[in-house]
Amino acid sequence: MLFSGIPFLYYFLPAVMACYFLAPKSLKNTVLLLFSLVFYAWGEPKFVVLMAVTIVVFYICGLAIGKAKLKPWRRFWLILSALAGVGFLAIFKYADFFIGSFNKVTGLSVPLLRLALPIGISFYTFQSLSYTIDVYRNNVPAQKNIIHFATYVTLFPQLIAGPIVRYVDVNRELENRVHNWEDILSGIRRFLLGLGKKILIADQFALLIKLFRESQNPSVLFYWMYAIAFMLSIYFDFSGYSDMAIGLGRIFGFHFPENFRYPYISKSITEFWRRWHISLGSWFRDYVYIPMGGNRVKPLRWVWNILTVWLLTGLWHGAAWNFVLWGLLFAAVLLIEKWIPALQKLPGVLKHGYVLLLICVSFVIFNADGLSQAGSDLQSMFGFGNLPVVTGETLYYLKSFAILFGVGILGATPLAKWAGERVSRTRSGAILELFVLIALLLVCTAYLVDGSFSPFLYFRF
Amino acid sequence: MKRTIRTVSGILVIALWAGLAAFAWFAPKKTVSQAERRPLQQMPQITWNDLQNGSFMGQFETYCLDQFPLRDNFRSLKALWSYHILDYQDNNGIYTEDGHVAKLDFPLNETSVQYAINRFTTIYETYLKDTGSKVYMTVIPDKNFYLAEENGYPAMDYETLFQKVNAGMPWAQTVDITKALDISCYYKTDSHWRQEMILPVAAKLCVAMNAAPPDPQAFTESLASDSFRGVYYGQSALPLDGEDLYLLESEMLNACRVYNHETKTYTGIYDLEKLSGYDPYDVFLSGAQALLTIENPNAESDRELIVFRDSFGSCLVPLLLREYGKVTVVDIRYIRLDLLAENVEFNGQDVLFAYSASILNNSASLK
Q: pLDDT (tens digit, 9 = 90+) per residue, A384-397?
């Protein structure tokens, strides 16, 4: 089920809210768990079983790590949980990629598994891994109540698209959380803002991308419009979804970490990754990069650490070679930024320009259907595709989407938030905020009713 | 004070949300959408199988969209937002210009045009080649021909379309009717032309076929509906006014009988019952029909005509009848070519192919 769909907004959410707030405190997690399972089963009924197995395995491993006195035993249970989590990911997400690549290299024809990808498997596996690792590190006690633990793994606000909420971030709230009017209102506000970002901006760019892909008269300019549209689409899509998740969490008394902080204003790729999908970056930093030694190792080992982390980051996003290339591209740029500090002394405009260009190119690789399409898209963008610079069709769509581009570009900066905060400080601003929220709800509903929404981009991860 | 306003704001938003949700859950359900001209999804049955394979979920989502309260109003809100806030030039491919609503149709799909030409050529080779029939072809320009390019909308390459049809059908005499029309000859909210405005087109075709053109004096305009809302009304979801739909009536037309080979029934030229159906334009020759035979007892000669046509032909054919005692009207979107021989005798009649540019550009439906 998608947050940005009529069944969620007008059937599921009202039902879960009514049951949740009517339920006594002791049953609130049970209500959330049951509804979360329905939420998950709505899209993938059969994969509820896989999720249940994941919950039981990590629950038992967590308890065992907590109870074991000897380090080898603690390590054993940790490795067992890691093998289970990574094993499920390997089977369901990566097996066909590796088999296919093996077949290509060797010329053999090992049959593919052809398994469907369970929705959100990367998110809930990483969350579960963070639990057993943190229990192993004594950062957090093992959860004895399986309902609480299952609620954490399945919690529908962040189940399928993050942010990747670590157990340590919510373990207290799982057992004892406060509900207040202020949180509920701010949660609704955040949810509606996220919904607006997703439906009114991201999905509109997705429409332009669809028109671009269908076009029989592309041009160099149209390729650049596509590249920028995808940059904006994925940002508003994913950050909108994160906003909705954070807002929903707040309604139910949880405080999830922020996942985006205006990444497109970054002046370096290092900074970009501190602002983009923060929960994933920090997960890899804390659970992979630092345990490998981080940067406190010999230079060659450090290069190896960076390459490994970014290879994994690429593969986390998808089991295909273009994602591998995408991850390694960032690894290379991060190494260059570390090795050439003079880059940071360039004028701000140049630094912005370089970051935006590189991200633009990286997302063209990211969104391509394989390396071959990535290559041909980039060729066309840079004028090597034997295409006209511009066509009448391109100009038509440029004119048609000009305002959306303006809104998207401004909205990707802190300007809108800054203006919103300044206006809302006044009494009339508070009234204006009411109209904005009502308008967001109604216009988003109008777009959904007209059936023009597109599925969440990060679903495939 | 600000805090109070915020709290009241929150309550109002929640109340609106909850109200819409309650309406969605409990409001009576509709069976059809007049604006969209289609039946609406009803609540699907819950079965274990459908739950397991996810088809219940898919149907339920369609049900939610179809039955959402104030659906038409919300669709209008979306259209208005797209046009006026985002300044989109079109909404779902629909654009408005000079009060006319039209649908973008570009670029020229030469493969599709060639497919249509191949179908027509098969008809010629199979049924017409050795009969001595005189064959005519006319491409009916769609609204985009008069609206799109000059107003900055992308359009198909009509020049190439006409050239391709000319070159691909050397066995037919092509008749250019583009100059006999302008945008006012079309309904504002529909894709089709207005019957009362196409007498010059009918005249041009009749002259080309060496037949007597329709006599404008013989017809009277009869107002069939003053609130006709065409196919683009529903698709655009814009709050558009209905328009007048006129029928051209004459003694000759009143005396005609139309035989429907599928239903084996007779009707008149105008099927007035259709005025209250999904598409009032179906009043002309009962709309989409595979095979009709018009018997014209008051024809000025005993010549016969076969018209291969799409929906534009429905209101054109009655204006071609003056000299034809029998007119066979074929729509090959609804009848296989090999079935034609069972129902139509090809024996040297005049033959007219009348197809709109949009059908030629999207010809997959031609059988």
A: 989 999 999 999 99
Judgement on whether residues B113 and B83 belong to the same structural domain of the protein: no
Looking at residue A165, its pLDDT comes to 92
Q: What is the C-alpha separation between B80 and A446, in angstroms, rounded?
A: 10
Chain A CB contacts of B13 below 8 Å: 188, 192, 434, 437-438, 441
> What is the overall mean pLDDT for chain A?
92
Is B180 inside any structural domain?
Answer: yes
Are A78 and A132 in contact by the 8 Å Cβ rule? The answer is yes
C-alpha span between A51 and A153 (Å, rounded): 9
Distance, CA of A427 to CA of B4 (rounded, Å)? 10
Task: Judge contact between B138 and B352, C-beta under 8 A.
Answer: yes
**Domain C-terminal end among B60, B75, B97:** B97
B55 with B174, same domain: the answer is no
3-state class (DSSP) for residue A401: coil
Q: What is the mean pLDDT of residues A122-128?
A: 92
Contacts of B61 in chain A (CB under 8 A): 5-7
Put simply, the answer to whether A443 touches B18 (Cβ < 8 Å) is: no
Query: Are B270 and B299 in the same domain?
Result: yes
Q: If you average pLDDT over residues A176-191, what whole number do you get? A: 92
Q: Give me the domain span that covers residue B337.
A: 108-365
B114 in any annotated domain:
yes
What does pTM read for this prediction? 0.89
Catalytic residue list contains A317: yes
Contact flag B107-A393 (C-beta cutoff 8 Å): yes
pLDDT of residue B1: 66
**The pLDDT value given to residue A453:** 39
Check whether A454 has a pLDDT greater than 50. Answer: no
Please, how many CA atoms are within 13 Å of residue B244, restricted to the half-sphere of its CB? 11
Number of independent structural domains in chain B: 2
Query: What pLDDT is attached to residue A254?
Result: 95
For the segment A105-123, the average pLDDT, to the nearest whole number, is: 88
Contact B107 A216 (CB under 8 A): yes
Q: A394 to chain B: nearest residue by CA?
A: B154
In a domain, B103, yes or no: no
Paired tokens of A208: 């332009």
Distance CA(A161)–CA(A16), nearest Å, equals 19
- Residue-by-residue DSSP string for A229-287: HHHHHHHHHHHHHHHHHHHHHHHTT--PPP--S-GGG-SSHHHHHHHSSHHHHHHHIII
Q: State the DSSP string of B101-159.
A: EEE---S--HHHHHHHHHHHHHHIIIIITTTT--EEEEEEP-HHHHHTGGGT-----HH
Is residue B273 packed enough to be buried (19+ CB in 10 Å), middle (13-18) or exposed (0-12)?
exposed
CB contact (8 A) between residue B87 and residue A400? yes
State the Cα–Cα distance between residues A91 and A78, nearest whole angstrom: 20
A277 falls in which pLDDT band (50, 70, 90)? very high
Catalytic one of A148, A255, A277, A317: A317
Contact (CB<8Å) B12/A434:
yes
Is B292 inside a domain boundary? Answer: yes
Instruction: Report how far apart, in Å, the C-alpha atoms of A123 and of each of A202, A454, B347 are.
Output: 21, 21, 72
Are B317 and B343 contained in the same domain?
yes
Contacts of B1 in chain A (CB under 8 A): 427
Shared domain for B89 and B112, answered yes or no, is: no
Domain spans in chain A, listed from the N-terminal domain onward: 6-176, 183-460
Choose among A158, A345, A379, A122: nearest CA to A248: A158
| Mean pLDDT, range B33-60, rounded to an integer | 88
Q: Is A378 helix (H, G, I), strand (E, B) or coil?
A: helix
* Amino acid of residue A287: Y
Provide the token pair at B83. Answer: 């046009």
Q: What is the pLDDT of residues A201-220, one digit of tens each?
A: 999 999 999 999 999 889 99
Contact assessment for residue A266 and residue A443, using Cβ atoms and an 8 Å cutoff: no
Element (H, E) at A422: helix A415-424
